[in-house]
């Protein structure tokens, strides 16, 4: 079976004033469909840069990124934006919810880019909120929800358009341990029961235990191969 994500000789260099800073050095990586991968490593190791490249939020300096057989490293900014909206669900550390909108309207946001009517958008949002255990909170605004509940709304928003895979950048970094475990358990459920492919950056070894594989980065290079738990 071919990998969902296939990365070959990936490099990324940023220009800061007169100097160039190399962040990734020739990374090779395959991620299978249905996997749950935790990316770990010290600050500055290139974890978030790699995550952003896989999610199409940034373009590499060199190398290839092939996802579902499509080279995304060759896409223009406009093509990449359209590709992201079809294929990627994003979960960030700080939720990024719209404060004036209800949970349901926040979850519906990605669907505004589709041709679905209001009734169908609402139906799909309710299904996503039910899946994350917040159907009874759909009318609440973010400031009426706990941090863990807000992150679950963010996960519902990430899955409402049934993306190919989820990109999670420190999804529990702003949560207490109990809320973090709820969110991680939900991600594990989405992976194991619903087949969602997930790539998650985390500093927390306990969070990484919820993943099927852990990949370690250091100074822009993979330092070992994925190992199953």
What brief labels describe this structure?
229 residues; alpha/beta; Rossmann fold; seven-stranded mixed beta sheet; four-stranded antiparallel beta sheet; globular
General description of the model:
The chain is α/β, with parallel strands linked by helices. The chain has a single domain (35-60, 85-228), classed as P-loop containing nucleotide triphosphate hydrolases (Rossmann fold), CATH 3.40.50. Helix content is 31%, strand content 27%. It is built from seven helices and eleven strands. It has helices at residues 47-54, 77-87, 103-108, 118-131, 147-159, 177-192, 205-208, and strands at 5-16, 19-31, 36-40, 62-67, 70-71, 88-91, 165-169, 197-201, 213-218, 221-222, 227-228. Strands 3, 6, 7, 8, 9, 10 and 11 form a seven-stranded mixed β-sheet that branches. β7, α6 (177-192) and β8 (197-201) form a beta-alpha-beta unit. α4 (118-131) packs across α5 (147-159) and α5 packs parallel to α6 (177-192). The longest helix has 16 residues, at 177-192. It is globular and about 50 Å long.
Low-confidence stretches: none
CATH class: Alpha Beta
CATH superfamily: P-loop containing nucleotide triphosphate hydrolases
Backbone CA Rg: 18 Å
Question: Which sequence of SSEs, written as H and E, runs from N to C?
Answer: EEEHEEHEHHHEHEHEEE
- In terms of DSSP E residues, the strand content is 25-35%
């Amino acid at each position: 079976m071919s990998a969902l994500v296939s990365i070959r000789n990936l490099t990324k260099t940023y220009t800061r004033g007169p100097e160039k800073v190399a962040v990734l050095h020739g990374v090779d990586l395959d991620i299978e469909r249905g996997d749950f991968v935790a990316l770990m490593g010290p600050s500055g190791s290139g974890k978030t840069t790699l995550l952003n490249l896989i999610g199409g939020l940034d373009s590499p300096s060199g190398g290839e990124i092939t996802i579902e057989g499509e080279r995304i490293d060759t896409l223009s900014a406009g093509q990449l934006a359209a590709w992201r909206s079809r294929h990627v669900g994003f979960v960030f550390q700080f939720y990024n919810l719209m404060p004036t909108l209800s949970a349901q309207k926040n979850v519906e946001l990605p669907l505004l880019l589709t041709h679905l009517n209001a009734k169908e958008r609402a139906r799909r949002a309710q299904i996503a909120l039910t899946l994350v255990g917040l159907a009874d909170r759909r009318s609440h605004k973010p400031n009426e929800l706990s941090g863990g509940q807000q992150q679950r709304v963010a996960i519902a928003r990430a899955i409402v358009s049934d993306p190919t895979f989820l990109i999670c950048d420190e999804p529990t970094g702003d949560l207490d341990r109990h809320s973090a475990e709820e969110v991680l358990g939900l991600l594990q459920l989405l992976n194991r029961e619903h087949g969602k492919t997930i790539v998650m950056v985390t500093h927390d070894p306990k969070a990484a235990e919820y993943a099927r594989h852990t990949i370690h980065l250091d100074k822009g290079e993979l330092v070992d191969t994925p190992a199953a738990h």
